[in-house]
Design a protein that fits this description.
Number of helices of chain A: 9
Number of domains of chain A: 2
Strand order of the largest sheet of chain A: 1-4-3-2-6-7
CATH class of the largest domain in chain A: Alpha Beta
Oligomer: homodimer
């Protein structure tokens, strides 16, 4: 496994692979790798000749009051996990390499970024699209692997790729969960034992919503109220949003249908947690 | 020569050339090709195995009161010229192909775009960078050819390419001029015979400024005043701006040095004309 720190070296390795006709798969991460990342990497490995993972805690996607400084950075553990999963290349640039002094460019996607997480994290998606766009130019992958847990991020990146004609195919991989249902996230580390017990109620409320919808309650307002009540009764968390939206446009729907995305963000103690499901019928 | 209308076809031709290790050169244009474009194409041909020219009158880079509708589109003549110059591929997409309904993404470069043309054409450079970024993803060139006449555009695109790590080398080609010095431009077609006579004063005032600077007048304010007087005395044109700037950052300098860019925009009748020189000593 190669650990590549510079853009120029990564680009020449990608050039070489492309010249040899070896399909490149790419898993962008912020490190603190867990089984969710592992699922992305395994699919990437299976579907490509060259499997590239980037580890970059992207300062542009954190707000000034967010957790950039304390975001976990377990370098050695990450490298070991990647090696064990037979990643071919870790692209591991410094902040200076990716966002040097005098950096003046941004990529923006409108509309899709306005609601949900975008409403509570102004500038977040601009940071995501700017850096993911740059990573695509550096790694030049044939396939990009993203986790369904970040549903809005998936929609935003897909839109950017379509609009800007990045020559890459996007693959969305299902959310990986703990045995009790909590979606894996690097931010779960922030939780105390009690908060960890409460955190499972994100997924429980989503599952309960699915059953509730199955019983014929298809008004978004009603379903959201139902979920809020469950969270209020079972956690001390602060609900940032619960949204019933079209999974491509992220526009709210009043009536829930097959394919509707139900997404949520809840602050539990020091951790801002997100989760979502797609309504199946 | 191939004429390619779709993004997917262009991308597969570029993929093929890259797999074969054939260097791709790219000349983006808005058509109405003239000897300025010809100079770009000839250098591109000489330096690459595959020479790609795009013809796309980019609606995103025109303001609502600008000349998008009347911009010349001599399709047959353009195709003939390209053929004669041995262009391998003309990428000739429709507006719908490049900017379909539901297009939501922009690329922005700050600071460099604020002054000069950016001040008088709000949104212009956002339109340029968004579409040039997209064209780079489609054509995937090794080398990009731009004309020095659009000095600010060159600086903005260079900055975008550096910031976003587009894997392409930028080549800037000197401005091509009529025998009397007028910089070639598709917009020269808008000029009446009298306006055409006046238009030469853009370059004459730049040359006069060069001599004036050579005589020791190095204060930007003094040189700009000198140029304005020449233009006022010899044309009925309206000076939009005359600027003495650093050619990379487009930031104004008070004292003119070797390498300073003197750039100007003048409205002469229906034509907004631009020109510039770099101070040589």
């Amino acid at each position: 496994m190669k650990i590549v720190k510079t853009i120029s070296r990564m680009q020449s390795l990608s050039d070489e692979a492309r010249r040899q006709g070896r399909p490149i798969g790419f898993v962008p991460t912020m490190g603190a790798l867990h089984d969710g990342h592992r699922a992305l990497i395994r699919t990437c490995r299976r579907e490509n000749k060259l499997c590239v993972t980037s580890i970059f805690v992207n300062p542009l996607q954190f707000g000034p009051d967010e957790d950039f400084a304390r975001y976990p950075r377990p370098e050695k553990k990450d490298v070991l996990l990647a090696k064990k999963e037979k990643v071919d290349i870790i692209f591991y640039p410094s902040v200076k390499e990716m966002v040097p002094t005098g950096f003046l460019t941004t990529i923006d996607v409108t509309t899709i970024t306005a609601g949900l997480c975008g409403r509570f994290r102004p500038g977040h998606f601009r940071g995501v699209t700017t850096v993911v766009g740059k990573l695509l130019n550096i790694v030049q992958p044939h396939r990009l692997y993203l986790g369904q847990k970040d549903a809005q991020q998936c929609a935003v990146i897909r839109q950017m790729i379509r609009d800007m004609a990045f020559p890459v195919h996007v693959r969305i991989i299902p959310t990986v969960r703990e045995s009790d249902g909590l979606a894996l996230s690097s931010r779960n580390k922030y939780l105390s034992r009690e908060q960890r017990r409460e955190a499972v109620w994100l997924y429980r409320s989503l599952q309960a919503a699915r059953r509730y919808i199955g019983q014929g309650h298809r008004q978004s307002r009603e379903v959201k109220r139902f979920m809020r009540r469950l969270l209020r009764e079972n956690t001390k968390g602060r609900v940032e949003y619960i949204a019933c939206v079209d999974p491509k446009t992220m526009q709210a729907v009043t009536h829930i249908q097959k394919g509707t995305l139900i997404a949520m963000a809840v602050q539990i103690g020091p951790a801002r947690l997100i989760d979502n499901i797609i309504v199946r019928s």
